[in-house]
Amino acid sequence: MYSINVSEPLFWLGLSLLLVAISLTAVLIVAIPTLQELSKAANSAEKLFDTLNREFPPTLEAIRLTGLEISELTDELNIGVKSASSVVKQVDTNLNQSSQQLQNVTVKTKSIFTGVKVAWLTFRGKASRKLDR
Questions:
Q1: How many other CB atoms sit within 10 Å of the CB of residue 51?
Q2: How does DSSP classify residue 6?
Q3: pLDDT grade, residue 39 (50/70/90)?
Q4: For 13, how many CA atoms within 13 A lie in the half-sphere containing its CB?
Q5: How far apart are CA 31 and CA 27, in angstroms?
Q6: pLDDT, tens digit, for every residue of 51-107?
Q7: Neighbours of 28 (CB within 10 A)
Q8: Distance from the Cα of residue 105 to its chain's centroid
């Protein structure tokens, strides 16, 4: 019968190869579910990238168009504000002119009433002098 001598290098080589094979088998057994999950994750990522590839350009275009519309509205608003400012200045100028004209009318009306009063008093004064004579 053949006896196993523990000091023989062939024994240790065989034992080492057996342990390496067992270790590789254990690694493969553990790695198979991990690789399957990794494959599922890669498929999910591919679907996500396809969706992004389809949806992202129209979204960017919509954002660009919205930016242009906001810019146009801002320009229109600025024009409206300038126009309103011009109208307010015109109204202010017209109010100042109207106020000045009203003051002139008031002065002229007072002058007319004063003139009529003086004329009346003068007329009455001459009339009373004629009667006195």
A1: 10
A2: T
A3: very high
A4: 3
A5: 6
A6: 988 888 888 899 999 999 999 999 999 999 999 888 889 988 988 888 888 888 888
A7: 10
A8: 54
